[in-house]
Amino acid sequence: MGDGGGLRRRDRLPGGVRGACLPGAERLSGRRRRLRRGGTMDAKLLSLIDTAIRREEEAYAFYQRLRDRVADAAARETIEWISQEEKKHKAFLEEYRRGGYGAAELRLSEPVFYRIAEHQQEPEMQEEMTRPEVFLIAAHREMRSHRFYQALAAEHADGPAHELLGRMATEELRHKEKMEYLYANAAFPQTSGG
Predict the structure, then answer these.
(1) Which residues pair with 40 in a beta bridge?
(2) Distance between CA atoms of residues 135 and 139, nearest Å
(3) Angstrom distance (rounded) from CA 64 to CA 79
(4) What is the domain partition of the chain in residue ranges?
(5) Which residues contact 54 (CB under 8 A, 6 or more apart)?
(6) What is the C-alpha separation between 93 and 86, in angstroms, rounded?
(7) What is the dihedral of CA 157, 158, 159, 164, to 10 degrees?
(8) Which of 76, 107, 117, 139 is buried deepest, with most CB atoms within 10 A?
(9) Does the pLDDT value for residue 169 go beyond 50?
(10) C-beta of residue 173 within 8 angstroms of C-beta of residue 146
């Protein structure tokens, strides 16, 4: 995965894995429904943003339920981290809806396509799960979120809605990347022989 690409310490996951931080999540202010360039958001874009906000709320609730079922402390910590990322997404979308900043303010890097979730069956959420099962469940959830935003973006011509939804799709893909990385390390630990 590299050296973390120059991310700040607070942007790292437990164990030194790169993490994401949406800018401005802590600076929520202003009640405008105007884009930075002065344009007014249309009703369709507002509806899309509301749908995305609900998806982020559902993702947060999902990860809280998953965290509550996990006994492994490291896996619990990671699931708590990703649930907080979903809260940041919601905060970003709410501020975007108010006109606080544009989609271009999502700081993104190119995700790595491990494609593990595409080739591994999603385990059922149950009372006792292994660390790899927890991370694979999370990877599948992020894959579905990525596909949701990607499909919505494809329905829109270039413009604010297309840009926002495309960036949200990439953000979800980055989360999938992290969960797959953690899954691979938990499911196939390196032996002392290298």
Answers:
(1) 34
(2) 6
(3) 8
(4) 39-106+114-187
(5) none
(6) 11
(7) 100
(8) 139
(9) yes
(10) yes
Residue 168: pLDDT above 60? Answer: yes
More confident residue, 110 or 170: 170
**Cα(167)–Cα(149) distance, integer angstroms:** 9
| Burial bucket for residue 40 (CB in 10 Å: 0-12, 13-18, 19+) | exposed
pLDDT class of 87 with cuts at 50, 70, 90: very high
Per-residue exposure over 113-143, b if at least 16 CB sit within 10 Å of its own CB, e if not:
ebebbeeeeeeeeeeebebbbbbbbbbbbbb
DSSP 193: T
Alpha helices by DSSP H, the chain = 43-69, 73-97, 131-154, 160-187
Residue of 10, 41, 43 whose CA lies nearest to 25? 10
